[in-house]
Amino acid sequence: MKTQEPTVRPILLRKQTKEGLYPVVIRVQWNGRKEKRLGFSIPKSAWSTREEMVKKSYPNASVFNAKIEEELDLINSNKKRFIDEGISFTAADLFKSIRKSKSKSDWFSLCEEINSKRSFKYVTYARYYTVGNSIKSYLQHDFNVDIITVSFLYNYTKWLKNKQFSNGSIQTYVSTIASVYNYAVKNHYIPRPEDHPFDEFSKTKLFPAENNKKSISKAEYDEIEGLLLDMMLKNDSSSFLNPYTDESTLAMYVLGYRLGGLALIDMSKLKKEQVEIKKIHRDTFYMFHNVKRSKTNKPVPIILRQDIITKKLMDIYLSSPSNFLFPLFYKHTDANEKEKVSNITSATTRINKRLRKITGINNISYYSCRHTFATNFLNSPNTNPVDLAVLMGRSTQGIFTYVKEISQTEDIIAARQKMGL
User: How far is CA 177 from each of CA 112, 129, 131, 141, rounded to the nearest angstrom?
Assistant: First the structure.
């Protein structure tokens, strides 16, 4: 039986993508059927059939749901206009009307056009929409990219700073704006300005990138191990196998440190078959075979001593169903290099945010475990940079990038006392 007015619903397509996910579409039924893909796919478990939206627990759910709501608002707005004006229409006409009703310099129209040409991964797609929604929130209305000027950039970035955005995030937002703005200029959607706003606006000078790669103190690291140990005593193993939990986040940071400050991309590649459990004298060790740094392709010798923390965690990860050792992604596969980079970027952002929230350390990042390992190693008695370079898969000269020059009087005295001076 035909309905009295168009049916508009967001749904999941039944056909999976090659990654095993389901595309989200808007389906309209009225004098025919028409569907529009929204540019992202999710697991079936992440979709709420009752609410017809992405479950809030799924990463980037707010971005995806905002996209769904935006499309529904536009479709319903055009539907109302057609009905009010007495114009007959089909489902396909509703979608055509949406595209025609927008200016070519509209931010979200440009994002759709760029996406259709470049086929963004959902992380990149989500970032473009997040930035657009942020600007929309700042302006309190829809906008076209021709509003972007040097003055706008300064005021907008200061607004972001007041909302506690990190300098690195502000730089990312500005770079995204520049990408869309330059696309619009290149395709003559907006006139080429005499004074290009991104020539005059120095984002690096106004908001220099923060150094999130420096080490944390030994006391701060010890406190993180204490937090992790407390979680291990209270929670079951499932918490450590879910990459989106506090337990998993702290486990990856501590194990990253214990493995010699291994980079997250190298952690993600480790497989169970590379681990051998071996007893040497009275201690038990986990021997990692054939580990190389992705950055330099240099071997990294890893021998992890078993203690209360490593035994519990390694028991959990070695008994998990995955072939990969550590659960860093929602779906962990041998993806192509481009997908691996996208996965690592998403995982790094997620872990860094959780680390700051859990520990209360503002400048902590996953990568700081590498600098912390290097600093603590060189601060230990009878150590030298050559040994550290081997343990971290680096050149001897490059190892000094991890160490701050000493300047405090107490540190200088302590350094001289190591030589008996």
Answer: 14, 11, 8, 17
